[in-house]
């Protein structure tokens, strides 16, 4: 009887360990070059696969696919060592199938973390904190699309300066909210790089409250002449008021909200 209880306890502990491993988002048989699958909750887990001959160069690809269920959400992730204050270049490729809006459903992001895996603060003096009494945190980076290769792979890439307190970058290659869809990620790298060349940037702000509009687009049209004037003055960046599609036109925030993609 004592031997039976011991065996039963070992079996139970084995199930618990397996459950903990699954909820943490790692399955050893899927790990590829340090990349591990992850998901927010078990009921939202999509299907993960590694194709060692995939990708635009045949060096391998990390796939995520969904069944008929709505709301599935998962990502491949990997930690890269970085030097605080140094610039790094990110580059990756992706290819999607049966995804209505890649901008909404296929997202890469970079999280800056310290040696203990904790978020780090922003370096910019005077940065706004959204948590009263606490310093502002360095926000995630979202690499932008650069163009499609002849065989249908979208290239992503950008150059970033690492926050001074960061020692690692967590790169996430995600897929979400697209039933029956699929994405493959390939050749994702984060490499140390020199800083971008210095250049002068001309900024413009528009302080205006629209009047008489009946829709969000009516409000937008009122800003067009001022944006054109900023362009004539060679502005590189024009900053507009927030929630301008809802201001003074009788619409609620919900009524003024737009879908992604939207107008």
Strand tally, please?
Answer: 12
Largest sheet features: 6 strands, antiparallel
What is the CATH class of the largest domain? Answer: Mainly Beta
CATH topology category name of the largest domain: Jelly Rolls
Task: Give the terminus-to-terminus CA distance.
Answer: 70 Å
Q: What is the strand arrangement across the widest sheet? A: 2-3-10-5-8-7
What shape does the CA trace take? globular
Provide a count of the helices. 4
Percent range for β-strand residues: 25-35%
Detail the poorly predicted runs. Answer: 2-26
Count of all domains: 2
CATH superfamily of the largest domain: Galactose-binding domain-like
**Helix amount, in percent?**
10-25%
Per CATH, the architecture of the largest domain is Sandwich
Q: Give the mean pLDDT.
A: 89
Q: Write the H/E string, N to C.
A: HEEEEEHEEEEEEHEH
Class from helix and strand fractions = alpha+beta
Radius of gyration: 23 Å
Can you characterise this structure?
This protein has two domains: 26-193, Jelly Rolls (Sandwich); 203-256, no CATH class. The longest helix has 22 residues, at 2-23. The protein contains four helices and twelve strands; from the N terminus they run H-E-E-E-E-E-H-E-E-E-E-E-E-H-E-H. The protein is globular and about 60 Å long. It is an alpha+beta fold. Strand 7 (144-148) and strand 8 form a beta hairpin. The protein has a six-stranded antiparallel beta sheet, with no helix packed on it. The protein has a four-stranded antiparallel beta sheet with strand order 1-4-9-6, with no helix packed on it. A two-stranded parallel sheet has the order 11-12.
């Amino acid at each position: 009887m004592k031997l039976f209880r011991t065996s039963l306890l070992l079996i139970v502990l084995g199930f618990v360990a397996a459950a903990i491993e699954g909820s943490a988002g790692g399955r050893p048989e899927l790990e590829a070059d340090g990349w591990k699958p992850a998901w927010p909750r078990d009921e939202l887990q999509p299907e993960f696969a590694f194709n060692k001959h995939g990708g635009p160069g045949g060096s391998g690809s990390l796939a995520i696919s969904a069944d008929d269920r709505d709301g599935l959400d998962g990502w491949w992730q990997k930690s890269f060592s970085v030097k605080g204050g140094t610039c790094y270049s990110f580059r990756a490729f992706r290819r999607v199938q049966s995804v209505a809006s890649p901008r909404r459903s296929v997202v890469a992001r970079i999280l800056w973390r310290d040696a203990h895996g904790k978020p780090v603060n922003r370096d910019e003096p005077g940065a706004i904190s959204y948590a009263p009494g606490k310093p502002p945190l360095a926000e995630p980076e979202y690499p932008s699309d650069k163009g499609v290769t002849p065989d249908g792979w979208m290239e992503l890439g950008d150059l970033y300066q690492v926050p001074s307190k960061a020692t690692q970058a967590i790169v996430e290659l995600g897929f979400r909210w697209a039933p029956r869809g699929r994405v493959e990620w390939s050749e994702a790298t984060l490499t140390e790089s020199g800083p971008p060349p210095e250049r002068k940037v001309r900024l413009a702000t528009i302080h205006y409250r629209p009047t008489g509009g009946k829709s969000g687009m009516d409000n937008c049209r009122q800003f067009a002449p001022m944006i054109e004037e900023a362009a004539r003055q060679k502005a590189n960046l024009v900053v507009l008021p927030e929630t301008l599609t809802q201001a003074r036109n009788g619409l609620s925030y919900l009524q003024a909200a737009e879908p992604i993609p939207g107008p």
